[in-house]
Amino acid sequence: MREAHQHIHRHVPPRTVLSALVITLAAAGVEFGGAWYGGSLFLFADATHLVAHIGIFAVLLIPAARWHERGEELLTLAVLILVALIALGIVVSSCRELFAPHKELPNAASMLLAVFGLGANLMTAFLFAAPSKTRWSFRAALAHELSDGALTVFGLLGALAIHFFGWHWVDPTLSLLVGLWLWVWTARLLLRWMRLGREAWMLES
Predict the structure, then answer these.
(1) Residue 25: CB partners within 8 Å, gap ≥ 6?
(2) For residues 82 and 58, is the Cβ–Cβ distance under 8 A?
(3) How many domains does the chain have?
(4) What whole-number distance in Å separates Cα of residue 23 and Cα of residue 126?
(5) pLDDT tens-digit series, residues 50-74
């Protein structure tokens, strides 16, 4: 199993993961700028979510070596705990905003910048499609990217709802969905680790 595991990793070019990292950070930068300009909590949450992907990419970049399995396990657990804390912060901020007195609506046009995040999700999913056929870690990352893309589509629809109907609750609700989705994703992987141990991050049989 270990030999097969290392063999698979040697055939995942680091440039694939690094390309996904650059694309993701660029999209996050655009969204952070849009969140600051337009006052959108959803856009800020989505950008923070994209930055959290750095941890995923770091796990995927661990080189095959004698310490690989242990290093992958420890780094993955650290990333999951960090993402869980980020998700908790997003949920708390979203709930606070949702029940606060209505303030000025976010700029719906700036929320459309979430399309950059959607583009990053789809491009990363494309880059991970081939290695996901043999590596569970890439398969999990691919599924996460596609799910993120679906969530971003709701954000784009929410921007239209704010523009046409002026609903104050849409922006914090979308942000809350991002936080809850992060929490569910983290919990699912932690439960897999509790059930399978180190095997959770290894090649599927």
Answers:
(1) 50, 51, 54
(2) no
(3) 1
(4) 12
(5) 888 887 787 777 665 555 566 667 7
Q: What is the 3-state secondary structure (H, E, C) of 117-171?
A: HHHHHHHHHHHHCCHHHCCHHHHHHHHHHHHHHHHHHHHHHHHHHHHHHCCCCHH
Task: Tell me the CATH number at 109.
Answer: 1.20.1510
119-153, pLDDT tens digit by residue? Answer: 999 998 888 888 777 776 677 777 778 888 888 89
DSSP-based three-state secondary structure for 113: coil
- Pairwise CA distance, residues 98 & 41, whole Å: 10
Enclosing domain of residue 58: 2-201
Which CB contacts under 8 angstroms, 24+ apart, belong to 82-85? 82/52, 82/55, 83/52, 83/55, 83/182, 83/185, 83/186, 84/182, 84/183, 84/186, 84/187, 84/190
Query: Is-contact 74 59, C-beta < 8 A?
Result: no
Q: Which residue has the tokens 């932690």?
A: 190
Please calculate the CA angle 130-133-139 and round it to the nearest 5 degrees: 95
